[in-house]
Amino acid sequence: MKRLIKLLFLASILTAIGFSIDYLINWVNDKNFDVEITIKEKENIEFGFNLDNFKVQRDTIRFGDSFGEIMLRNKLSYSQIYNIVQSIKDSFDVRWLTAGKPYTILSSKDSLANPQYFIYQPNRLNYVVIDFSNLDSISAYNKKKPFKIVKKTTSGIIDSSLSETMDENGLPWELINQLSDIYAWTIDFTRIQKGDRFKIIYNERYIEDTLLVGIKSIDAAFFSHNGEELFAYNFVTDSMKKTPEFFDQNGNSLQRTFLKSPVRFSNISSRYNLKRRIAYYGNKVRPHKGTDFAAPTGTPIMATADGRVEKSSYTRANGYYVKIKHNNTYSTQYLHMQKKGRVKKGQYVKQGDIIGRIGMTGNTSGPHVCYRFWKNNRQVDPFKQKLPPGKPVPSELKANFEIYKLPLEESLNQITFNYCLLYTSDAADE
Q1: 151 contacts: CB under 8 Å, gap ≥ 6
Q2: Which domains occur in the chain, in start order?
Q3: What's the pLDDT band for 277 if we cut at 50, 70, 90?
Q4: What is the model's pTM?
């Protein structure tokens, strides 16, 4: 009996709920409510500003333009311009504006249209904002556009030269230069042979998913040269400086004390030869104690190692030249520069610094740099010297290096030897 009463009570509750729901639905329908849906429009954001809030003027730096002239055309006075330039001189020098580069001026949207921001783009990724919206608090700061990193792989077989092969396959020059920098100490690129092979795992930067703005880094590479297999892995050993270094599969540094060549992608037109005979001089022995790297006039010449400039001068035979003392053992000299070297006597230079450009000054029949190498005050052939290597992966980081290397090694092994993008993968936005 009690069970029956409970069932009847439960049924009555359910009936009441059903009635209440039906009543509510009918009430809403009778009222005929209008539902308003608001769709928020996407804000026009660029350079960290909502451009809808400004009058926007876009233009390009013209030849002969200056910051002052541009601002004068946009209603700023001489005193205002002077105040802006002086206020930001420690953070941005307006003399750095380069013809052909774009700029944007954001002005107030009212009838006065007063300029408030000047935005300069030295390249696609970076920009400089000069903020003079408040003339009592003027500032300038550097920013990067948001970009996405896309990981890619490629490979190739050399038919002529590394640069020509990569260029023919549509690879950017930035990637070519980075690869040559990695192997600058271990491969003589003037002796690249047909059939040499390479593989690369690298990262590209894209703005708005489609606009390529350059190569961020190379993660790993493989180069087969003259039967020797050379691996390169980008591994950071200093967590504070975060400076990338490249090591082979055993953790040995690819860096050496000296670069193989003072010029990228050049040809050796004449080697070190103490028994050289020249027909012009009656076939007499005229020793050549340098190595000639032929390249077009104006090609940059790099210091092959750190050191202090000993001479930056001119002689009738050498033309314009630079001599660098690296330590008590080694010195190098660079002859026949286009004009006086970019460095001065006593100046300290780093490996890879541009010290001059290829020319034809002095006794020369074509554009080249004669590279001379001293060891213990005696000129020697740089390609026959056993130079000390860079530091290997520290022992305390060797296990981390092996873990880091393993997936890259597997990816390199999966790349076939032809030009192809085997995969692309998106990394986190930066």
Answers
A1: 201, 202, 203, 219, 423, 424, 425, 426, 427
A2: 45-144 (3.10.450.350), 148-256+390-426 (3.10.450.350), 267-384 (2.70.70.10)
A3: low
A4: 0.63
